[in-house]
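User: We ran a pulldown and think these components assemble together. Before we commit to crystallization trials, I'd like a predicted model of the whole complex to look at. Sequences follow.
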Amino acid sequence: MSRISWRLAPSLIALAAFAVGCHAPGAARAPAPTNGPAAAVRANAPAPYPPGWPLATNAASRAVHASHAMVVSNNELASAAGVEILRRGGNAVDAAVATGFALAVTFPQAGNIGGGGFMVIRMADGRMAALDYREMAPLSATRDMYVDSTGHLTMKGRVGPLASGVPGAVAGMAEALRKYGTLPLSTVMQPAIRLAAEGFPVDSALSGALMGAQKLLMPFEGASLFYPGGRALAPGARLVQPDLARTLRLIAEQGPAAFYTGAVADSLVAEMKRDGGNITAADLANYKAEWRTPIVGTYRGDTLVAMPPSSSGGTTTVESLNILETWPELPPAGSAAAVHDVAEAFRRAFIDRNSELGDPAFVKNPVARLTSKTYADSLRTTIVAGKASRTPAFDAHGESMQTTHYSVVDAQGNAVATTTTLNGYFGSGVYVRGAGFFLNNEMDDFTSQPGTPNQFGLVQGEANAIAPGKRMLSAMSPTIVVGRDGKALLVVGAAGGPTIITATTQIILNVVDYHMSLADAMAFPRIHEQALPDKLVYERGGLSAAVEDSLKVMGYELAPVGHLANANAVLRVPGGWVGVVEPRSTGGAVGY
Ligand code: DON
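Assistant: Here's a predicted model for the assembly, 592 residues in total across the polymer chains.
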């Protein structure tokens, strides 16, 4: 897709009166603060929720405080697995790997060993790292493999054995542990093995996900385990996964080789052969997790450590924040002017994301330019107070929350942000016989047909076209904010396709700009703008009627949805850490 040029109204100021609280024209980039309250841990300000916002009720009660360490994920048992490893002397990376493997057991709708993810690490000694364990297209993949002879996009990129990229999760977690962990794989995998072998009570999230995915999963091998008697496992039912336990034991004993060249690889390739899939032994043997140079940005004096391509998350988050930083101060949270500024920053960053980014092994990503302050300054001049910009429109697809993010900090101040996914809930639906895990449907994150939206409504360009051995562009945005005192301040990220980027950014804004408590920063209503489709998406009830009216007058087409994104975060506070599970979802913040 070629770059989109702005179609801005000639009058820049005519509608400014509607942008209540809008900025003075010509405001310059805010200088980075050089002083301030301890320059890191901040006092909280009340969050200006719109009237009747349900998540405002008891927001503070969702905050879990701990003085040493904290793990926050979408499953309490998986968070507890991380804390178990921390208590056994492990560091945040050991704990993150323990949580990651446990999520593959207790949160199989998104936690996985058959998918991939991204991990951002910031060690207390200042070392920063970004690990890319995104899936890769099989070597036999072709650019138009999901387009039929009549030129139509088929569902083969979303469902069934052709939808999967080569899984990266096991390689990634083992590599993170090798480089930054302190305990052996066999130790950090113990909680996951125990949960798989002995079983655990199914929670409402897994039960609900199974109910929603029944049509997808019934044709595949996992049906008998997850739908005994043809019905989804109910909350409280005990789920024992002996095949998965065996697979995890093999990985614990033999390392990632068990998965990529050993017995698990054999099962996976046999599953592919049985059903017409295309992942081969060579694909698995070739897979490698890649260390990347993290994107390091700044925002109002704090440092952002974020994920570079093959995820677009860090680039798009930092680009959006750089644009917003051009204003010395943002308008009040939730005001029409604030929504406008934030939406227009997102719109510009997403246009760049959708057209310019892809796997760095295949395309040259202009990350330095896109994340530079001077580029943000130039984009800022195209934002008109009180007037929505335009990008070409088409219909959106539904949005959901099928990835999973977890945030970990330890007593030394090491921090890990990890996001991992099968893409859709339970991925492609294919369950590897005898090995006990689902395979991703990550191939749909490629541009399967330029100009045609994927399942998240994203229209993407050639940079993200399918090619053998290529990683599909992601929106996953594991991010660590380091305070001005040089210590990890906020660990955050989310699930939700492209809404990952916008939710993560808004939580950062809520903490840094609006000084909200983490509980409020997470509960505060979210908006989403991804350039195409040209709609301002917002959480129903999240904007006051007056703000909705102002935004319509500015020219926004408003699209209310139920919920946007699923984030899990940790914030440093006086005396320790506070962890908050996504209030729109379920999970556990466990600390000590
Ligand atoms: O990598 C990505 O951007 C997507 N595969 C993430 C998918 C996701 O978050 C699913 N939940 N909506």
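Confidence is low (pLDDT under 50) at residues 1-27, 34-39, 393-399. That may be worth checking against your pulldown data before setting up trials.

User: Thanks, that helps.
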